[in-house]
Each structure stands twice: as C-alpha cells, then as structure tokens.
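Hi Y.,

Following your request, here is the sequence exactly as I used it, all 501 residues.
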Amino acid sequence: MLILEINVDTGKILEKNYELLVLGIFEEEKYHGVNGIIDKALDKEISQKLKTLEFNPKLRKTCLITTYGKIGIKRILLVGLGKRKDFSLESIRMASSSAINSIQELGITSCTFSILGDKATKISFDQIVENTVVGCELALYQFNLYKTEDQNIKKINKLLFFVYTPETSVIKNSISIAQIIDNGVNLARNLSNMPSSDATPTQIAEKAKIIADESGMTFSVLNKKEMEKFSMGGIINVSKGSNQPPKLVILEHKGGGTARPIVLVGKGITFDSGGISLKPSEKMEDMKHDKAGAATVIGTMQTVAQLKLPLNIIGIVPLTENLPGGSAYKPGDVLKMCNGKTVEVINTDAEGRLILADALAFASRYKPQAVIDLATLTGACVIALGSFATGLLGNDDNLKKRITSGGEITGERVWELPLWDDYKELLKSDIADMKNVGGRPGGVITAASFLSNFVDYPWAHLDIAGTAWTQSNVGVKPYNPKGATGVGVRLITEVLRSWET
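Below is the corresponding structure, written out as tokens. Let me know if you'd prefer a different format.
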C-alpha cells in the first residue's frame, strides 16, 4: 500500500537538477547549510522575500520560486516552519503536508525535500525524516475506491531527501518505519471509509485474516455460537436486528517471548442506525465510521507486526451491525454479559459500550499487563472536546501517562477526564446490576464508568468520537484529508514503540 517511492540523495546541492526542491524557512531564518547556499546562488532572493509580503514563514505557509536557470534546480518551494522555539515533530508533519499539498496542486509528480529544520532545533535527522514522510504520505491519501471517472490529477509518486551526510542508512531506516506506520494509518482509514455494504463483520474478519497472514500474526475468530459459550450477551443482542452475523476477531503478535501481553480492543459497529432507539436520518451515512475503533486496532496490529516490536500484543475486535428489526434487542431488555454481570438496556443506541464490555471481559483470559480500548463511543465527547483531542479515561496512572506522552509526540493529543465512583451512581438499575446509560450529564464519563465494570487489569479508554473522521477540509490538519483520519494508529504505535516493562 506504499504511496511514494522514496530515496536519499547526497552530494553538492548546486550540482543537482531537481524539478522542485522544498526548503523549510523559520520566521527568524539564519540561512545555514542548504538554505544559505541556495539563497546566495539566487542572489538573496529568498531572504529578500522574507522582507516583503510575498512570503510569511509562519507554519504551513508556502511560496514558490522559479530559479530561471541560475541553478540546476528548476523551482524552490519555501514552506514556513514558524518560530524556531516552537519547532516540534508536529511542526514537521504540518509543514511537510502543507508543502506536498501545494506541490500536488502544481501537477508535479516528483519532488525533493531538504531536511526541515537545523541542528539548533535538537531534533535528530531520523526523527525529521520519519515525520516528513508521515506528513507527506498521510496528506496524499485519497479514498477513490468507488470513483468511476478519471480524476485527471497527476499524483506525486516519487520523493527524494537531499542530505549532506553520506551515512544514509539511518535515514533509510526512518523512511521504512514511516511507511509502515503510514500503511497502518491508511489501512484504518480505508476500513473506516468503507460503506457497510462492503464492510460487514464477515468481510472485515476476512480482511483481518489476510493481514494476519501477510504480517506474520496469529488469527482467530469467534462466531455467534462460540460467543454464546462465553455468554457474550452484549455482542449477541446488539447483532439481533441484523441479518449479518457478529464476529469477534483476535489478532496476536508474538514478539515478546513469555511476557504478559498488551491488549488493544476496538469498537466495530460496522453500521449504527441506533437500533430501536433510531438515530435522526441527517448524517446517518457517517455511521459507517462507527467501526473506526476496530479499524484502528487492525491498522495498529499490522503496524506493530511489520515493525517486529519485541512485545506480545493482542488485538480484539468485536464486529456487528446495530439495526432495528423484528428480532432487534429493545429498551427494557436485560442482558447477561461475558463476566456474568447483567445490564438493563435503556437506549439501544448505547450499543458500543455493550460490545466493548464483552470484549474487555474476554481480554481477562490473557492476563494482560495493560489494555487500551478505542471507540467512537459518545457524541458527548464531541461536545466536550470537539475534533482536536481524544477523550482519555482509565484506572492506571502510568498507562495514562504513556498515552498522554504518545499523544504529544504524534500530535494525536488526548485529554483526561475523571473516572470517579460518583458517576457509577448514575448507572444504577432497579432490576439489573447496571443500566447501559446514565443520562445526558457527563456522558463521556458515565460511558467509561460502565466499561470499568468489566475490567480487572490496568486499563485506558480512548473515546475517538470527535477525532475519527472529518467532515470537511476546513480547519483540519493538512495531513488529514476529509473522511476517516485513522486516529490512534500512530498514537498507540508510539506508545508501544517506547514501552518499557
């Protein structure tokens, strides 16, 4: 699924004949290295532009310069890096994706990046290259599976890095890592963007098996009869309104010897109508994205397996549709869950927590050292945090710190909400152990409080309802085109790459 052919070039920059070279420019540019050499060769044209209104080197701003034969490079694209003191990995992703989007609009199919930033920023070459590739490839993603007409868009297919150092092995390794991660993100995007007609529980399970076989993972799947043996009343009852049978996919990456595993759980409602508690029709088509948590877990499992991380990691993905029908589960029903607890159904549109509860209880069988679940769980999270942060709740401070740190590194930021016992009071039922909803107040927290009844291990819950997809290209990060974002793949991969027992 690689998007770009990426290579490394060395030598003397003024001897190159590139079609287009990207230079990163700080607001207080000092013209070191390549930037200084190019500026001098172009008779200070770059530094002069910074004194005019033609180019503002704030983060993401771009400016195209034609060299008119003064050097072998035909065109220079300046991209703003912002203030040097604010320069970060996210700055690199934002700048590189802004640059690649501008280049795409020019109809150019290949380009060269000089290393963004300089030694004064204290970000290593390998980190700069990895995050430049991430920014470029994620920005170029398109979901065109159902387009029948030629888009007549020239696609960028080759990217080159110009570096001074002849030691390119580290940089090539960074490119390889970035492309593995990008493939995982784009796999998650594809699965989330797929309409439910072509992404049924069975079809996703079949895709997961192919991924497992290709990536060296162990694959298994529970069908409805096997779920009944484990008393998975959540998944089974949510699926009753659909003709599509439910599945519970299990992917295992065995890279950690005898160590206890880390388990990832992803909500996989392949389409959510709300069931008997029917949703409004407006924007219901977006409910194909209610499988985004499952998509993220599958994408992450492919990534960690291909990176060959020295950990045992298990992905558990409960999959079902949530539809109304003569056999559908109903408000007032009482369900027996995988851990034996009973739940009174108040709202059938609070189905995600029911299938997650079974999967989380099932995860105990693996005696995990930690479990992280991801789910488009509550509209309340969108109201609370918008599309700029994922909600984080959990019962283990160390795990939450790992995730928060990973969010800062990857730009997939999280924000912690409390998980106090007070909120469990809102879930008390007169006829069962608990209700599946606690009312509108504190909806993100009561949903997580519900899930906490099904865990007996270090656990963190990520509510990605606001970050899993975007409805426009306005105001979003330039590396997240409209549609599914694949949020969580980079975040969880970073957490696992830096995992220390």
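The chain has a mean pLDDT of 95.

Thanks again,
Q.
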